[in-house]
């Protein structure tokens, strides 16, 4: 009885103070700056913080929030922090990086272990990782992040909790500086840049301002008829329509926007009764939840990742089994992508899942169009991720920000430069640091190569916007990556070299090292007769061509029709010409979705950023 009273009393006392999940075991605090520790407490509670032989005292305001400022700390650790009865252990002081963007910042490190087997034996306790849980709130800013976040080390027992780019960047930074590194990752797959910018900083884009009354009405209509019903094994789907998998909704005659359920029965031999199996569902567009015999076995929230789900033991039965998929595509372009594997594999048995399925529409959002017309660009969920995943962490001091995003904005690249500039201004304002470094990851190559130099390219437009931002916005740099992508995978696996290039830029911008950190940068052009002479900055020890003759230069006359051109290096210039163009007026370099053959670099081996001299 005495023991129970002690435990009960301790829990009451502990409960008087709440901390954000960021302030917890294994956290990394930014060195050499004044720090802020915050939380919430009951009225009348006195808060005492002890850290590195210093004591700080405070009490909550009327809303229950409290904060203290800690004097700048030198790098080191591990340390212990005491906040009343709460003890936070294994704290490091070093450099903290806020890493944000969409799915390429989200790529799980587990996808890279075959290519980089050293991940499996990672032994780096001085690098740490925290993933901000998803919280999308378009209605208002949030004071705290969603629950569930946790700091992890870079040791083998915890490294599988990391995302890939964050791991390789932290490792590169630590091995160079020998200072603890913390990766604070706040990202979401499929997100557009508008969702990461506050409403105040979207005022130049009226289509991204929220009609909150219409939003409330829309939210109340989001009901899926099949929820908790159509996933069940014994549900009667006899009157459902038929569809073929793989295939698109349109190919199957599905005229809907929203959620469509797919069901298929399959038989298993006695040998598979209760056994573990692996489910392969290719790639689906956009998001899915998958059930086998009524039990959920996997879910993915956005397009492109391969769907590979484990079916735990005890779910599969001999004889008839049922798989149900809740597939959501709010644009009506749902799809089971062709030329991918759709099967169940286990204990020597392979069940082919291609062919005929049954389907029914769970929710058609077409009737919400009236609300959507008032909400303008709802798909962008403008400001929602800023409200829920950036604003709540504004008091956590960082060394700089990494931004890897743009794929979802490639269809409207013309506005991206302004949006990116607004985002940088917004974040520097909310973090109260006008010189906050921004490190931009330029989009790599993707999609099939084209032989047409006039083919439109949203990805080239995004790259141009990223490049211009790095040149015009102070304390901003960019890495070039159009040789590191994969034409058939929007999530290229070589995050190691991407991180290495970006940290090279950080060494110059953030740490002030004197080095060549980028490839040649287009400066000017001059026309002489039928040739164009291009001049560059950042040539380092000189211009060169990687492996072969220069590729991916195109030239045009006043008719604005581009043709592939011959390009040769002459000193620190590139001379471009074509027999087809007698009076050239414009040149483009690496201007396509997939310019992987573009090969202009400096002697330091850093590629030139794609560019164009026209504004057509």
TrEMBL record:
Annotated coiled-coil segments of the chain:
none
Ordered alphabetically, the record's keywords are: Hydrolase
Q: Which domain of life is it from?
A: Bacteria
Query: GO BP, one example?
Result: carbohydrate metabolic process
One GO term in the molecular function aspect is: hydrolase activity, hydrolyzing O-glycosyl compounds
> Would the keyword RNA-binding turn up in this protein's UniProt record?
no
Domain called Sialate O-acetylesterase: residue spans: 384-469
Give the protein's recorded name. 9-O-acetylesterase
Organism this protein belongs to: Chryseobacterium hagamense
């Amino acid at each position: 009885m005495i023991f129970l009273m002690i435990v009960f009393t301790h829990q009451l006392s502990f409960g008087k103070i709440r901390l954000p999940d960021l302030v917890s075991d294994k956290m990394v605090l930014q060195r050499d700056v004044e720090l802020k520790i915050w939380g919430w407490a009951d009225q009348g509670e006195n808060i005492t913080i002890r850290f590195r032989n210093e004591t700080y005292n405070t009490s909550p305001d009327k809303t229950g929030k409290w904060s203290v400022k800690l004097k700048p700390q030198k790098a080191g650790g591990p340390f212990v922090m005491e906040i009343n009865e709460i003890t936070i252990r294994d704290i490091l002081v070093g450099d903290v990086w806020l890493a944000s963007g969409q799915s390429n910042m989200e790529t799980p490190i587990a996808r890279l272990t075959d290519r980089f087997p050293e991940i499996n034996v990672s032994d780096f306790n001085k690098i740490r990782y925290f993933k901000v849980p998803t919280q999308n709130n378009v209605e208002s800013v949030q004071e705290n992040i969603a629950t569930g976040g946790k700091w992890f080390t870079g040791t083998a027992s915890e490294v599988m909790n990391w995302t890939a780019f964050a791991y390789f960047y932290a490792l590169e930074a630590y091995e160079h500086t020998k200072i603890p590194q913390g990766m604070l990752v706040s990202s979401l797959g499929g997100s557009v840049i508008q969702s990461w910018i506050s409403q105040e900083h979207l005022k130049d884009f009226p289509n991204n301002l929220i009609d909150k009354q219409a939003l409330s009405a829309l939210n109340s209509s989001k009901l899926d008829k099949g929820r908790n019903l159509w996933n069940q094994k014994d549900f009667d789907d006899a009157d459902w329509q038929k569809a073929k998998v793989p295939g698109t909704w349109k190919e199957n005659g599905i005229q809907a926007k929203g959620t469509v359920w797919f069901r298929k029965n399959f038989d298993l031999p006695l040998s598979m009764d209760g056994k573990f199996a692996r489910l392969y569902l290719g790639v689906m567009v956009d998001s899915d939840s998958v059930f086998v015999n009524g039990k959920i076995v996997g879910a993915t929230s956005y397009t492109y990742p391969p769907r590979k789900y484990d079916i735990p033991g005890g779910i599969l039965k001999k004889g008839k089994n049922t798989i149900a998929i809740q597939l959501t595509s709010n644009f009506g372009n749902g799809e089971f992508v062709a030329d991918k594997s759709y099967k169940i594999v286990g204990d020597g048995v392979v069940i082919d899942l291609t062919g005929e399925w049954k389907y029914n529409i769970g929710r058609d959002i077409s009737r919400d169009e009236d609300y959507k017309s008032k909400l303008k660009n709802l798909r962008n969920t403008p400001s929602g991720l800023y409200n829920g995943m950036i604003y709540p962490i504004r008091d956590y001091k960082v060394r700089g920000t990494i931004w890897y995003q743009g794929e979802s904005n490639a269809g409207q690249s013309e506005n991206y430069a302004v949006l990116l500039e607004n985002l940088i201004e917004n974040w520097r304002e909310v973090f109260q640091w006008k010189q906050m470094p921004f490190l931009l990851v330029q989009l790599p190559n993707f999609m099939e190569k084209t032989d047409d130099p006039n083919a439109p390219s949203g990805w080239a437009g995004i790259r141009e916007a990223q490049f211009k931002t790095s040149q015009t916005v102070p304390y901003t740099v960019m890495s070039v990556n159009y040789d590191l992508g994969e034409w058939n995978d929007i999530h290229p696996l070589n995050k190691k070299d991407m991180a290495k290039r970006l940290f090279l830029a950080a060494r110059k911008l953030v740490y002030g090292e004197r080095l060549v950190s980028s490839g040649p940068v287009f400066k000017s052009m001059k026309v002489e007769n039928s040739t164009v002479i291009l001049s560059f900055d950042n040539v380092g020890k000189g211009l060169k061509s990687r492996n072969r003759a220069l590729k991916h230069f195109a030239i045009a006359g006043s008719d604005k029709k581009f043709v592939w051109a011959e390009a040769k290096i002459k000193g620190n210039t590139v001379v471009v010409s074509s027999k087809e163009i007698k009076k050239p007026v414009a040149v483009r370099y690496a201007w396509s979705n997939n310019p992987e053959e573009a090969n202009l670099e400096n002697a330091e081996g850093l590629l030139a950023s794609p560019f164009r001299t026209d504004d057509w």
